[in-house]
Amino acid sequence: MISRQWRGLAKQSQADKYIEHLRHKTFPKLEEIPGFVNASIHRRTVPGGVEFLIVTIWESIDAIEGFAGTDVETAVVPPSVQEMMVEYDNRVRHYQIVE
Predict the structure, then answer these.
(1) Is 5 helix (H, G, I), strand (E, B) or coil?
(2) How does DSSP classify residue 95?
(3) pLDDT tens sequence across 49-98
C-alpha cells in the first residue's frame, strides 16, 4: 500500500468550499479508479489561512498513475482549487505503508 500526501494552504474564506470540492468532486472520481483505497482530510488553522493535508491510500504506484499520470509525483490541482489556495505543493510525497 502507498500513502500519497499533498499539502495546501487555503484562504480562510475558502476552507469549507475546498472541503466540499473534495467530498463532491475529487473523492467520487477517485473511487472510480482501480486500486484506490481511501482518502482523508486533515486541517488546521494557521497564520495566513487553513492548512490542509490530503492523504490518499492506494494499492500501488501503478494505481496512482490512473489518477496522476506517468509522473506520479505531480500534484493534481484543478484551476478552481488553485483559486482557493494561498499556496500549495506542486509535488506530492509517497510513502510505503509499513503497518
Answers:
(1) strand
(2) E
(3) 999 999 999 999 999 999 999 999 999 999 999 999 999 999 999 999 99
DSSP 3-state assignment of 64? helix
Residue 61 pairs with which residues in a beta bridge?
none
In the chain, beta strands by DSSP E: 2-10, 36-46, 49-58, 85-88, 93-96
The C-alpha cell at 26 is 475529487
Q: How far is CA 72 from CA 4, 6, 12, 16, 65, in A?
A: 9, 12, 29, 27, 6
Q: Which long-range contacts (CB under 8 A, 24 or more apart) does 22-30 make?
A: 22/54, 30/56, 30/67
Sequential DSSP letters for 11-32: -GGGHHHHHHHIIIIIHHHHTT
